[in-house]
Amino acid sequence: MEGAGESDFRKVESNSYMDADDLDLSRLLDKPRLIIERKRSLEERSISEISIAGNFRNVDSYENIFSPMETVARSGWNTPASSTPHALEPHPMVSDAWDALRRSLVYFRGLPVGTMAAVDNQSEEVLNYDQVFVRDFVPSAMAFLMNGESDIVKNFLLKTLQLQSWEKRIDRFKLGEGAMPASFKVLHDPIRKTDTIAADFGESAIGRVAPIDSGFWWIILLRAYTKSTGDISLAESSECQKGMRLILSLCLSEGFDTFPTLLCADGCSMIDRRMGIYGYPIEIQSVFFMALRCAFSMLKHDTEGKEFIERIVKRLHALSYHMRTYFWLDFQQLNIIYRYKTEEYSHTAVNKFNVIPDSIPDWLFDFMPTRGGYFIGNVSPARMDFRWFALGNFFAILSCLATPEQSTAIMDLIEERWEELVGEMPLKIIYPAIEAHEWRIVTGCDPKNTRWSYHNGGSWPVLLWMLTAACIKTGRPQIARKALDLAEVRLLKDGWPEYYDGKLGRYVGKQARKFQTWSIAGYLVSKMMLEDPSHVGMVALEEDKAMKPVLRRSASWTC
C-alpha cells in the first residue's frame, strides 16, 4: 500500500476528483431497508439446477451445513449481527482495538465511508496510508457488521460504486468501465466547507498496476453485508446490479486464453510489488472464484442478469476443475511431478504444462509432509510456482474452490508445518522467502521485499481472520485459537504493526506502519468469529456438489 501522495492525484473533474454535491449518498441511503425471514440464502441455489441453455427455476435451499461442525449455526438472513456492541471476551486488547479502529474512520459529508489504512502519527511519510483501500477495508467492514454497525459498510459500498462510474485513464489509455479503485481519499476544505474525493485506479500506485481484486472484494463484501443484515434491497438495486455486471464483463470477456484462470500482472493484488506472481496467481484465482459465486447468488434473473449467470456457471465449472486438478499439490502428486516426462505432445500428455522436474526447488522436498497439501502459487506453461500463499489457500477453503478433502489437507499442512507458516506471529503471507540471486532477478532488487520481510516471507497479522474463518469452516477452531493466543502476546504491545519480519515473525517489520487498521480489524474479526462461529457464514460458502470433479490423480488427502 504505497504510492504517491495527495499531490500526485490528477485534479481532473471527470477522472480523479468529484465535488461533494456530485456524490450524494442520501439518495440511495434513504431506500427502505427490507428485513425478511430466512427461506433460503441467495447463494444456496445449486449451480447444477441452473440450465446453461437458460432454463432457470427456483429451487429449495441446502440443508447441509457448510462445516463438518454440525453444531455451528449458519449465518442466515435473520441472524443477529451481534447482540451487544463489543460483546467479546474481556481481553484487555479488545477495547483498545475498537478504539483504534474507530480512530481510523474516514468521513464524507458527515457520514463514515471507510477506514484509512493506518493511523501512524509517528511516521514521517504518510504516502497513501491515509487513504481508504477497497481491499484493506474488508476486515474493518466485517468487524462492524459483526458488531451490528452496518451503515458504514453500506456507505462504503455505495461510495465505491459511484467511483466505478468515473472515467479512468492512465496516460493516454482508458481503463475498463467496470474497474474499481484501489483506494480513495477524502479531502476536506475548511474554507469552502466542502468535501472532495480523490480516487486512485492504479495511476498513482507503484508500478502503475490496476488492482484486479478490488472489484472482487466489492462483490464479496456486498454479499457479506446482505448475509449479515438481511437487507436485500441494496444488492437488488439497479445500481448494484449494474456494478456487478460491469465487474463481471471485465473478467468474463473472451480472448486468447486457453485456461479458465485469470491472467495477471505482478503487483495486482495484496502482493502489490514485484514478487514473481505474474501469470495465474492462486490469490487472484481464489478471490475470483469467490466473487463469481457471490455474484451468482445476487444477480437478478432479468434479461441482463441471465446472460451473466450463464457465463458464471460455465466459468465456475471450468475453473473449479482446472484449479483442483492442476494447482493441487500433496506428497503423492509431488512424486508424480518429480517423475514427469517432458516434451509430450497431443491430448494424451500427462505433463500437460511441460514442467521440467529439475525446476522443483530443493526446499519443497523437505517441506512437503506425508499428511497435508495445498494449492501452489502459479501454474503456466513450463512453470510451477511451488510457494505457499496464505490468502489464496484460505479463500479456496471459504469459497469451496477446495474440496472438503483438500480443505482438510490444507489444515493438516498448517499443523504439520506450524513453525514455518505461523512461527511466533501469524501468519506467513508467502513461504518460503526468495533470496540472493533469485531475489535480485524476481524482485528487481526491491529493498522492501528483502528475505523474510514484507511480501517476501513476512508475517501479516491481518491474515489471522482468514485463518480463523477457514479453521471454523473445516471444524478445526483449535488451530485458530492457538494462533490468536500467539498474536495477543505482542500485537497491542508492539502498536498493531502492519507486518513482522524474520523466519519466525519475531521482529516488527523494518518499514511496518504502526496502528495498521487491518491488523486491528483482523484481530477483532478473529476474536468475534471464535466467540460466535455463525459469523463465518458471511464469508464462507457451501459446497456445490455439482462442481466436484472426478480427480484421476493425487488423492492422498483421503488416505
TrEMBL record:
Gene3D superfamilies assigned to the protein according to its UniProt record, in alphabetical order: 1.50.10.10
Highest taxon of source: Eukaryota
InterPro entries found in the cross-reference section: 6-hairpin_glycosidase_sf (IPR008928), 6hp_glycosidase-like_sf (IPR012341), Glyco_hydro_100 (IPR024746)
SUPFAM superfamilies: Six-hairpin glycosidases
Gene Ontology terms, MF aspect: beta-fructofuranosidase activity; endo-alpha-N-acetylgalactosaminidase activity
Pfam families per the UniProt record, alphabetical: Glyco_hydro_100
Chemical reaction(s) catalysed: Hydrolysis of terminal non-reducing beta-D-fructofuranoside residues in beta-D-fructofuranosides
Keywords: Carbohydrate metabolism, Glycosidase, Hydrolase
Reported function: Invertase that cleaves sucrose into glucose and fructose.
Family: Belongs to the glycosyl hydrolase 100 family.
Protein name: Alkaline/neutral invertase
UniProt organism field: Dendrobium thyrsiflorum (Pinecone-like raceme dendrobium)
Upper lineage: Eukaryota, Viridiplantae, Streptophyta, Embryophyta, Tracheophyta
